[in-house]
Amino acid sequence: MPITRVGLVAKTRLDGAAGVLAELAGWLEARGISAVFEAETAALAGLPPDRVTSSRDELPLACDLLVVLGGDGTLIGMAGRIARAQRDIPILGVNFGSLGFLTEITLPELYSSLESVLDGTSRIDARMMLRSRTLRGGRTFADRFALNDVVITKGALSRIIDLTVEIGDQAAMRVRADGLIVASPTGSTAYNLAAGGPILHPAVDALLVTPIAPHMLANRPIVIPGSSEVRVTPSMDGNDEVFVTIDGQSGHPLEADDVIAIQRADRPLRLVRAATRTYFEVLREKLKWSQW
User: Tell me, what's the pLDDT at 237?
Assistant: First the structure.
């Protein structure tokens, strides 16, 4: 499908992106491509208030390619919105700080990367998305999408929590811990990594289930088939505070007898990759694997 509309969204209050945004819009429009600005991003770029813009939630419906200027957090937020909109548009992330795991395209690489997307020669990864549903009283209370992970944790003043984990239709484990992470391969380098879980290459069709500071050292991370559904049920009394968090950006408290059902989403995220480096080069730089 030809790209005729490019959505532009920048990290909130990223003043350094203002000039880039104006230049980028001109570059696109000179090629007959409409630049569709997210509302806050348009204000950041200093565009006139009468210019037609889009909200972050509606932007995936208004474009054929999404360009994100900022860091991994900004890209993760837009990934969830693309999934909710049930779109298959690619997303190109440009990092304004150090190289990101997801926003791996640097500012000097922006236009060459865009050219490759427009002419159909770019490398685009299909990254697994997760769908998380909170079931309350047998009905769906919340339905969210995640690129990295779904995390069930205790409140700041709560004791260790008890979680029962089912994988598919089989009882898997009971965990007494500070919490539990269910991560995608992309999310394996996020909270999962800090909690001692393994790194999965993005091409691996699998999910990760990683306890957070488990009371029993025998509770170890487990890699399961990507087709699995993970169901987590917290055991709670009146003093427990348990929360579910989606990609570290949204969430809600849980009640007794709630069930969190997590599975692979129907659509993956289409992530534009930098042409100049491999996945392992990103790992070496971010994790300092080349330092002795």
Answer: 78
